[in-house]
Amino acid sequence: MIVNDGQGQTQEDGQGMTKAQAAKIDRLTRKNDPDATKENILKIATEEFVAAGFSGARVDEIAERTKTSKRMIYYYFGSKEGLYLAVLEQAYTRIRTLESELDLENMPPVQAMAQLISSTFDHDDQNPDFVRLVCIENIHRAEHMKRSVVLSQMNIAIIDIITDILERGYADGSFVRRVDPVDLHMMISAQCFFRVSNRHTFGAIFERDLSSEELKKRHKSLIVDAILAFLRHPSSELA
């Protein structure tokens, strides 16, 4: 192995390559594959922001872990906030993409709504980092998210999906209760999100392991049934 022994001597590694040569190859590889470099930065940045929040995460640490530099990170993302927004945008893109690929428009409305709720449940359960990122951004009162045109436009898609399912359900009589699509989206998100965001405190208070497969299965069924029952029942005027 070629290493610097501290006395100006260079030694060869097991592959006949100096550290300087390896570093040069690494730089060339990154230059020739910027998409892979950006994806790796986003992956590590997600871990850092999830662990330390926006304020606590350090770009120096992200650069060290990705074997890049702050200059390269700023070249791709502009700033620490730009990197954080890119992480948020990627997280939301994944769930919106998942929803768009469910083929819900070709399912009967009740089946489509049940599938959407189940998919949201599974996504949140399998992606606690997403839940953590949303919690962190709420701590900051969504001040970063409000600056993202991408996020404001992207999330319209889920409301369009819910609107379509509802309208088809009203047309064939599957659904009776008239509800604002955004309100319904909030209901679905709240039910699925809470289990993950509060699983540790809820589990500690009531001695329930919300990660158990048996409990997850029961909760998913409960949430789907509750929301479908809500849509099938006419609204009552509150005093």
List keywords for this structure.
0% strand; disordered N terminus; 239 residues; Tetracycline Repressor, domain 2; mainly alpha
Q: What percentage of residues falls in helices of 4 or more residues? A: over 70%
- Total DSSP helices: 12
Could you say what the CATH topology of the domain at 81-232 is called? Tetracycline Repressor, domain 2
Helical/strand content category: mainly alpha
Name of the top-level CATH class of the domain at 81-232: Mainly Alpha
Uncertain stretches of 5 or more adjacent residues: 1-17
Largest sheet: none
Radius of gyration: 24 Å
Q: How would you sum up this structure, described in words?
A:
The protein has helices at residues 19-32, 34-56, 59-66, 70-77, 80-100, 109-126, 128-139, 149-154, 156-172, 181-197, 199-206, 213-232. The longest helix is centred in the N-terminal third of the chain and has 23 residues, at 34-56. Helix 2 (34-56) packs across helix 7 (128-139). By secondary structure, it is mainly α. The N and C termini lie far apart (80 Å). The protein has a domain at 81-232: Tetracycline Repressor, domain 2 (Orthogonal Bundle), CATH 1.10.357.10.
Write the layout of secondary structure elements.
Blueprint: H1 19-32, H2 34-56, H3 59-66, H4 70-77, H5 80-100, H6 109-126, H7 128-139, H8 149-154, H9 156-172, H10 181-197, H11 199-206, H12 213-232
Summarize the structure.
The chain is mainly alpha-helical and 239 residues long.
